[in-house]
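hi!! sorry for the late reply, been swamped w classes. u asked for the two structures so here they r. pasted raw, havent cleaned anything up. first the sequence of the first protein and right below it the tokens
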Amino acid sequence: TTGFIDARTNNGNGGNIAATSKDSVTIQNINSSANGGDGGNVRINAENTITTGFIDARSQDGSGKDGEIELAAAEVNTGSLFSDYILVQQSLDQGLLEDAVFNIEELRKHEFEQHFGENFALGSVTAASIRERLGTIQQQTGLKPAVIYAIAPPELEQPQPALDRLDLVLLTPNSQPIYKRINVSRRELKKLVQEFRSELNDVQKTNTDSYKPLAQQLYQWLIKPLESELQNQQIQTLLFSLDGDLRLIPLAALHDGKQFLLENYSIAAIPSITLTDTRHQDLKDTLVLAMGMSEFTHTNLKPLRYVPIELSTITEQLWQGSSFLNEQFQLDNLRHQRQKTRFDIVHLATHAAFSTSGNKSPYIQFWNQRVSLNELRQAEWYAPPTVELLVLSACETAVGDENHEMGFAGLAVSAGVKSALASLWQVNDVGTLGFMTEFYHQLGQEEITVKAEALRQTQLAMLHGNVRLSSGELWGTDTKINFSSVSDNTKDQILSHPYYWAGFTLIGSP
């Protein structure tokens, strides 16, 4: 076991590195790169396990050849993702922004491959091809999009200050990539994100604006450096491709001191632009398959009393489709209904979690079984035609650690689902019912062309007090629901605090 092995040189060939063990070898990082010569060779042999961080054996200026890397052991674990971060930062530092976009897309691809143990075909990736895709989105939807990449390498046991920073890259349909470097550490980012979420997702604080200073600081780091370009280019839709803890940010609630981010932009979170199916389809004449559970008699999960009202309101008042409740909510029936009828929207109102923290594996609770994410992906319920939108309406959807977005966005990537909508934290039953019914109302409006804009208009309606409880009824922009049959809660309430709307996140195609 050793720390950082540094055999690099700025003049000539890099040093060769060799290690042999009858047991295991653990090395923090290895650098045998060279400027002005060949990269040094790296050869490590062990009978059991080789574990390393990043390995850099390149000829950095291209004047020589890259060094050979040979790792021979029963098991090899390398910090390939960290190597990807190094490549991203090096291309940014050298001003090679087109290369940086390619490297970021590769980084994202490797993250998902490592998380799911699958290979994802990426195709041809250039900044030009991504600009072309953004231009196509604009032509098809009438809304001008931009991609914002936020890159913050993971924390190391031994900090490397030069690498510990936040990099922002903006890509629009008709300009070269724009790069901004923010001098904030991953630890600072993580701390602020956790504090921000803690302030927002506490129902006891819905009469306060204690979250605002945190919302404003995150805005200063993530949006302000790019603000003038977004305004000059008249961007309307923001597609965020984020790292780790940043995926947990309720982006709509970022605040510039006067307005929330959602008041100026529709927003979606994407794994990467090339891992997202951005082909546009108008959802106006589609059908929704709405399924869910209100009773969880075979589990220790709490009842969801408002689910029957939610399903019936969606399929009988707001959208065309079919609903299935409790005993009818089984994976086999989901698959059967999708095979029998073209349902472009699938709405599941049940307990679910996409956290991988503790002992809670990612799952969706069906009537007769808890289905893991892997089982769901293997069930072929998503067979063609493609599911345009998967909505998870549940109290524990996407709650957890930074891997929740990997699991949820990965469902879209690997299962052929274009977009998924869920909440970043637990929202109470009435708040969820109010949000979901308003969302389907907005999605059906003639002027709404994309799901991200329907989400934005839903959040705006809630922010402006148009979704509220009054005299035992739930009012929306154009809906009124009497829920006295399931609750005696007649307290008047306006659902305008970000607790009720900011957690809902669209992941995938806008």
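now the second protein. again sequence first, tokens right under
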Amino acid sequence: MMKLYKIGEISKLYNISTDILRYYEKEGLLMPQEIRENGYRYYSAKQIWKLSTIRGLRNLGVSLREIKKYIEERSVGKSLELIDFQLGVIEEKLCELLELKKQLNSKKKYLNEVGDNDKYNKIVEVTLPERRCYKRYSDIGTGWEIDLELKKLTNRTNTDEGQNFARSRGGAILGIDEYKSGEYTKYRGTFLMDDSGEDRLKKGRYISLIFKGPYEGMNIHYEKIKKYMGKNNLEIDGEILEIYMIDIHETDEEDEFVTEIQIPIKDNTD
């Protein structure tokens, strides 16, 4: 007589819940050898072998419908087709993992470079090219709202890289009026630099200041820039950008935050 196993024994043997086993039964994938009057389900080796096949194919993203079809119509030819499919999925996953490894290595290099920056708290004048980006305008009251708005912009990017580098390429937009009145935390929107972006950040001359530390000291850096611009007869020429190079997504230590302020200025050579 063929040995029968209770559903609980199969559950422990394959480390799979009884609920999933019952679901497979409902879908016609794994029918018990016997269901007794008390409702207990018993399986034999005739059914159990299917679990390894089901689990392997599910891990590769094959639907239950396709798995059921394969089990019912399996042949050497079908098995060869299935192997080719599995190899294709594995190759795709390997490519995805290699791309992720590349992104993480780039992120590691970026964090090391930004963390060791020797230009903190120094005002410099730079010339920047036009940069494609996504913009989203809305009244923003807190840093948490900025983060949420940036997430919305990240979802609009066409590349997975956006998920890993969004905050280092984006930040908040401060209007000219708010800047002039000293309302440095009254933002009017967010932006995310991305090659697929529909919007643009204007090319030209910018004042740039990179600082390390909590956002509470933001006003000190803005006042420092204002004094510099006044002393050098520089005029603002557009929206102010705050780029969050290192923020809550990389550290819980506010002293490790790194932010860049970019202010477009009129070209005095015009």
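hope this helps!! also noticed smth abt the second:
The chain has a mean pLDDT of 87.
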